Amino acid sequence: MASKDRILRLKEETRANILDAALRIVKEEGWQALSMRKIADKIEYTAPIIYEYFASKEAILLELNRQGYLKLAKELQLAKDDHNSPAEQLEAMWLAYWNFAFANKELYQGMFGITTSCACEMVNKLPEAELPWDIITGSISELMKIEDLESEIICTKYYTFWSIVHGLVSINLLDRGNSDEINRQVLRDAITGIIRSITP
Amino acid sequence: MASKDRILRLKEETRANILDAALRIVKEEGWQALSMRKIADKIEYTAPIIYEYFASKEAILLELNRQGYLKLAKELQLAKDDHNSPAEQLEAMWLAYWNFAFANKELYQGMFGITTSCACEMVNKLPEAELPWDIITGSISELMKIEDLESEIICTKYYTFWSIVHGLVSINLLDRGNSDEINRQVLRDAITGIIRSITP
DNA sequence: TAAATCATTTAACAGTGTTAAGCAAATGTA
DNA sequence: TACATTTGCTTAACACTGTTAAATGATTTA
What we know:
Chains A, B: InterPro entries: Homeodomain-like_sf, HTH-type_Tx_Regulator, HTH_TetR, MT1864/Rv1816-like_C, Tet_transcr_reg_TetR-rel_C_sf. Chains A, B: Residues 12-72 form the HTH tetR-type domain. 2 copies of one chain form a homodimer. By secondary structure, chain A is an all-alpha fold. Chain A has 2 domains: 1-54, Orthogonal Bundle (Arc Repressor Mutant, subunit A); 66-198, Tetracycline Repressor, domain 2 (Orthogonal Bundle). In chain A, 74% of the residues lie in helices and 0% in strands. Chain A contains 9 helices and no strands. The longest helix of chain A has 28 residues, at 2-29. The first copy, chain A, starts with a helix and ends with a helix. In chain A, 35% of the residues are buried. Chains A and B meet through α5, α8 and α9 of A and α5, α8 and α9 of B. The structure holds a DNA duplex.
């Protein structure tokens, strides 16, 4: 009886190992270099065994992204909890978003890269309460004193925020035109600018 | 003697055909589906012939991107020429940028997609006068009454502009959270906001 | 007409994701 | 203990990828 548990635990472990190996390869050699056989090598198995844990390579990428969204949500929540006023919360959250992107470059590329079009579908499959979207719009609606989280105005403001931060992030991920500090300042200016513009 | 010319002309033509076929495949089936054999099929040759015209698949992608940058620059210049004041020029140019992105979705993805890291290196290999960068910073420096196009302040403002527009574009390319009109309005607001903030 | 060059194709290599078949060890059953 | 069954894992294979070398057949040159 208990051996069943042990086996299940082992299975869960190799599943985690697969994901871990995949992410390690991506960090070392980039998304392009990720292959099933390389993953298998890293966990000291042969390739077909992976299909016992994931239906396809795509499924592995999807799961990595899912974990990325959860991780991002967790860090946003952490940043939010550190502050009381919605304005401070928003600033802290978008800075946390920025930090997440650079601390997890490859993950972020997978999650929000233009070519990986799964981002949208993926986001919708996550547990609602833990979505980055909800955590942030909460503060926006509080700041604007609008109850309905799904209202058009909240949605628009959220997208404005997201666009600016994501734009800065992605341009820095591919070009790094300015120094870190300058870009951080641009980010800060943009964020406080929007916050001011939506503060009643 | 003249036959040499004819042959050269034919060669130039098939080179263009290769690029054309590649872009058509990408538009029909996405970047992921692009393969040498498919290109060869479309131009009614076999795959190895492509290597007479391009060193590798990567080289084809690079050339497609190059053409994309030139096309974008041309449209920016066109938009610029339609207006006199630098403020109007900037608004028109960023709207043209936005329109280019959606009229050439796949091309834009290739040019500025996070995962395709060639964007930065590519841009630097283009004839200077025709770079998007130069066309836009010209108007910024005129508006701010600063001579030096390479000065830090101009550079920063350019990146601020670019980040916001690119952010809006790329999020709309993967999510389309709002309607077209709303996003266009967000874009307009953002652009006029920055223009106002840098107008002396 | 013979030689040389050119354009193009076929065949092949190493790699990819994925599936099916096989094997060998562990487990369940009598 | 002996047999049957399931499990874990590997080998072999398929269709595809980018790319290269060799072979072929047509065209130009001498």
